[in-house]
Structure formats: structure tokens, C-alpha cells
């Protein structure tokens, strides 16, 4: 693990480790609130919680892996590292890469499951199936490439010459995920905006899902840094530290933004003896709730409303 090394011009790896554990803490807080809503207030867990729980476990594993890579050479000049350090570094980065793919896919699956469960409309469900199918088709080859980036048996030797073009793969990964994240933002807007509710309430619901614009920003940064590596790989262990920072934000924000719609409703719905935030109540998918719920019900077969 990171031994609290000083951050210097020739040792920038601790920045990656520090941000990774800050992101882990943020993820655990957000997911904890989300699970509180499901298990205490709603008195049950819901289907997408399984995918979110898996994403959280993978996120913790990612942070452990990236933290193990830091004292072994991330952000330090390759000429200063021993062969044992380089070996440990490559294994840690290899593990983190696999977990990054898993975190991103599980977080996206959680949102798609949620959207599918709250809509009764066949047209919406078909759109969700289409996005889910595209996401699954992209996940399979991405996971395979992340697991086998180099020629066996040393598939973890990512600094070697017998590997795929890492920069190209991660540019592709970030670019396609930008498309998927765009769909995950547009789908809720498409589902909610035609509903019979005032624009303010529509905007509040849509804004919760639009928080995934932060994930798009992280993927855009990952794409940029992966592209920059093509011209900066004279010192592979030192030049990649900024790229690893972007992956930390990609995996962390992917999970946190899944929880934001629930956290927003929790904060709006909480009441105390001193402060009353309003009449907003938390959604219950099996009952009628006023104000800002998240379930769509058909209305006289002619339209739909938020119920």
C-alpha cells in the first residue's frame, strides 16, 4: 500500500492514491444512503441494488489495486525502479484495468434496470433493451481485451512489447462509453418530459439523471489522456499518472451518479422538528406518492403520468 510518500516533481503517484481513497469514501457514503432508502425507508432492496453493490465491490478492488501500483512506480521515472517493482506495478495496473471495465458496466446496468422497472410503456422498454444490448455487446470484448491485453502466459505484462495498443483500446473504451452515457441521460428525459406534470418537477427528476454528465466529463478526460500517451511514452511509469487519475474519477463518478436521484429525493423528503424541507416524499414503486416520485403509470390508455 501507499506509505504516504511525499509528492514531488519526480514522484507524482501519491496523487493517484490519495484521490482513489477520497473517491472510495465518497462512493461508500453515496451507496450507503442509497441502500438506506431501499432497505429502511422502502423496507426492501430493489433489483438494481444488486448491480450497484457489485459495482461498489469492484470499485473498492480497483482502489486497492491502484494503491498497490503507486509505491511500485506510478508517477515515478522507470529508470529508478527495480525489476520487482516493475513486475508488481504491472500486475496491479492489470487488475485495476479489469475492475475499471466491471465498475463501469455494473453502474450502467443498475441505471438500465431501474429505468426498465419504472416504465410500463413498451416503446420505452424497447429503447432500454436496445441500449442494454449495445452496452452488453461492448462489455464482452472490452472485458476480454482487459483480461488478455498481452500474449499468454504473462498477460499482465502491460509494459512489454507483446501487447495490444493500450492507448488505442482505452481511447475506444472511453469513446464508446461517452455514447452509452449520452443514452443514459437522454432516456430518462425522453421518458419523463411527455408526462402530465409541471415543468419544474420534470426538470428536478431529469436533473437527477443528468448528473451523469460528470461521468461523461471523466470519460472525455480519459480519452484525452489515453491519446496523449501515444506521444509521451518515453517514460511509461511516469507519464501515465495523469491517465490513472482519470480512471479514478471514471469509476468513482460512475457509481456516485447512480445514487444521486435517490439522494436528492431523500434530502427533499427529510423532515425534522426544526426544519421542514417541504412536502416532497420518497417514491414507492408499489403505491401512489405525491410530488417527485419516479414511477410511470398509464392513464386511461391515452397517456401517462408520474404516480
Observed structural traits:
307 residues, Rhopdopsin 7-helix transmembrane proteins, two-stranded antiparallel ribbon, elongated, disordered C terminus
Describe the structure.
The protein is mainly α. Helix content is 67%, strand content 3%. The protein has one domain (13-269, 280-294): Rhopdopsin 7-helix transmembrane proteins (Up-down Bundle). It has helices at residues 13-41, 48-69, 83-118, 122-147, 166-192, 199-210, 213-232, 236-239, 241-269; strands spanning 296-299, 303-306. A two-stranded antiparallel sheet has the order 1-2. Helix 1 (13-41) runs antiparallel to helix 2 (48-69), helix 2 runs antiparallel to helix 9 and helix 5 runs antiparallel to helix 6 (199-210). The protein starts with 12 loop residues before the first helix and ends with a strand. Mean pLDDT is 81; it is low at 269-307.
